[in-house]
Records
---
Amino acid sequence: MTTKNEPDARDFERRPGLALTELAEDAARCRDCPLWERATQVVFGEGPIDPLYIAVGEQPGDQEDRAGRPFVGPAGRVFDVALEEAGIDRSTVYVTNAVKHFKWQPRGKRRIHDKPNRSEVVACHQWLDAELGALPIDAVVIALGATAGQSLLGPSFRVGKARGADLTIGPRPLVATIHPSAVLRGDDDQRDALRAGLVTDLRRATTLAREDAPPNVVAVPIIEEMSP
Ligand code: URA
């Protein structure tokens, strides 16, 4: 007999994405920091269950909070274009965030992004860690910005120092780069250079990715029911 939180091991064999689905459902009930109170919903990671890349951002923005999906707003569009320029097929990328609820401050009628603090990042780390546990051990982790890097590698992580360095997280290579929103925030004369830097870092990730089957191929064998 299994409960919802103790899935039958055979379910994982039949539906390898089940672990992530169940994690997302559990995360929706998380009350380990106060951010859930003002967010519309949890925004869990999404993408193929056998990604070549796991991209980690900071936290959902206003549009992600409404849609319930990561990287669907302006920063997501910058990221999508940069991926394409770097030669990375978006369908090979699992995207997620260090913090799964939108933190914001009111300004008039607008909800303005507010950076998550260390205790919120630490409280949410359990979900990122669990996602990594459910994804392939040879996927390249891409840390988008300081909050992602600090959640993954600790509070002393600095993007400037980590860029271009040979980093790992457990068995996986880790590529550090700027957050796509830095491109949007940059002055007109900085924007092209920021975008180019992001693309250069993403290209480096492609040199570390496994070369294998096309995306979305389920690596875990499906066990067929045996007829009696
Ligand atoms: N910024 C992030 O870090 N993540 C998102 O999902 C959207 C914007």
Note: The domain at 18-208 is CATH 3.40.470.10 (Uracil-DNA Glycosylase, subunit E).
---
Amino acid sequence: MTNKTLPGPNTKSMIERDHKVISPSYPRGYPFAMDHGKGTEVWDVDGNRFLDFMGGIAVVATGHSHPQVVKAIQDQAEKFIHISSDFYHENWIRLGEKLSEIAPFKEDALSFMTNSGTEAVEAAIKLARYHTKRSNFIGFTGAFHGRTMGAVTFTASKAKYHSGFYPLMNGVTHAPFPNPYRPVLERRKGEDYGQAVVRYIEEEIIAQILPAKEVAGVLVETIQGEGGYIVPPEGFYPALRKFCDKHGILLILDEVQSGMGRTGKWWAIEHFGVEPDIITSAKGIASGMPLGACIARKSVMDWEIGAHGNTYGGNPISCAASLATIELIEKQYLKNAKEVGEYAMDALQEIQARHPSIGDVRGKGLMIGVEFVKDHETKEPAKKLTDRVVDLAFERGLLTLSCGQSVIRIAPPLSISKSEVDEGLSMFEDALTQAEKEMK
Ligand code: PLP
């Protein structure tokens, strides 16, 4: 709990300096200026303690500054910080071996390392075009894949991500993401909503707009993140896989947010029993060191020398942090994400029963979305209430982050304990009670 007025004086003065020199494009939610963190706890520059339920947007998988990750970074920094990706080093190769081991394909995997999620998506787009010799793609409404020119073309969670940046990449057609809480298409008898969306792609997009033989890939976030933490229905991925196989189209899964153990399995797609052709990873992969990866089946990553590359790919410090992160996830946090995730989900469903403004609670593992509505029948998004809950939670000492139109995402470090969940959710419910009173 904080006991001071926020923002404190040190935070205020930092924000003033920031505004003079840092790009105004960064979306800043509330005035939090970090001093240090340990596990799920963080402190601001005025000495206030907070619980972190967003984990740096689902990044600090092992918690803030896990000693094993810090040690791996220090050890590597003392040996060497950089050697261009034109050469070889041990941790890069070990990371490739590890990713091949955990990749959700039976086939061996090859990895292209990047510095961020958006670059991993760019690599996937380029690889899909290169491998299939086709140009077009299918993406989804509500998607977030990053902000570089290719990735941002697929991004469709907010129109402002495109505003002022046209022309975007050629060749992307969007289908509705199968959001079971807010369906926009009719279902036929015997179909779940995921299967209905794939039928729409086949009957409306492929048959009428975009010939299948021109389509290189379907790019989709396995569980939609920024768009509202949306878990598609069971039937979606099996039907999508069938559709891709029928037309020789690559299934590309963006697991930048949902991967690396966040859902209680290495990859969210493992909940659906389907193998993709390419996956992208970043965020949790190195506990906060900049690293991403485009991981593909060996038979798909067939580009020639020089077709794609970068200066910092396989950065030694990021790779060292990633290996330490993966070891921790494997040994402890995969299990913790599942167990504590179920615990948090149960607790949130109990809170939902007490608060009519919560329309839906959904997710897998520690990727949980709480959607606020004005009315259960109309499902009109309660945007103001959502923003107010985020602010009031902050005032009480809880860091959260919204997504979609009126969703708060619960994406803490995978190391979070049940008692921290209790502490955080008590602040969350208190904030919600207050916000509900104010909105009456
Ligand atoms: N893909 C998904 C699913 C994401 O959530 C994000 C970032 O939020 C990205 C891609 C882009 O990652 P980055 O911000 O590291 O470029």
Note: The mean pLDDT is 97.
